[in-house]
Amino acid sequence: MSGIVAPAVIRGEVITDNLVSFGGRGGEMEFLSPDPDTIADRLPLRNPAEMRSLYTLTIDEIIDYLVELGGALDLSGNAHMQEALERSYAATDLTPPILRWQYSLIQQYFSREMIRGFIDVPIGIPYVEGWQKVALADGRTASIRAMGARCLHITAGNSPMTALISLARNALTRSDAIIKSPSNDPFTALAVARTMIDMAPDHPVTKHFSVAYWKGGSVGFEEKLYQPKNIEKIIAWGGFASVKHVTRYIQPGLELISLDPKRSATIIGKDTFADEVTMRDAALRTATDIGASNQTGCSSARVVLVESGTDDAGIALLRRFGEMVYEAIMGLPGHLSTKPKNFDAELRADIEGLRSTPDFYDVIGGKDDEGAIIISKLDDVVDFYPSLSGRVANFVPIDSILDAMRFVNSYTQTVGIYPEALKLQLRDELPLFGAQRIVTLGYAMTANPALPQDAIEPMRRMVKWIVDESCPTEECPPLWAMHTPEPA
Amino acid sequence: MSIDEQARQMANDPPAYFDHSARLAHQMPRDEIEAMQFSALRQRFDSLRNRVAVLKAAADEQGIDELASLADGARLLFPHTVYKSYPVSLLERNRFDQMTKWLSRLTTADLSAAEVSHCDGIDSWLEALEQSTGLSVTHSSGTSGTMTFLPRTSDGYRIMSDVFGMTSRDFNELDDGGDARNEPWHTFYLGFKGGRSHAGRAAGWARDNFAQSDEYFCTLYDVDMSSDVMFMAARVRRAEARGELSQLEVSPSLKARQAEFEATQRNAARALDRIFDQLVSLKGERVYVGGMNGALTELAERGLGMGHSNLFGDNCVVQCGGGNKGGKLPDNWEELCLEFTGASRIGQYYGMTEVTMITSKCSEGHYHVPPWVITYVLDPETGKLADQEGVQAGRAGFFDLVPQSHWGGFATGDEITADWRPCPCGRTTVHLHPTIQRFSEKQGGDDKITCAAADDAHAAAIDFLVQA
Question: What interface predicted TM-score (ipTM) does this complex get?
Answer without folding.
Answer: 0.83
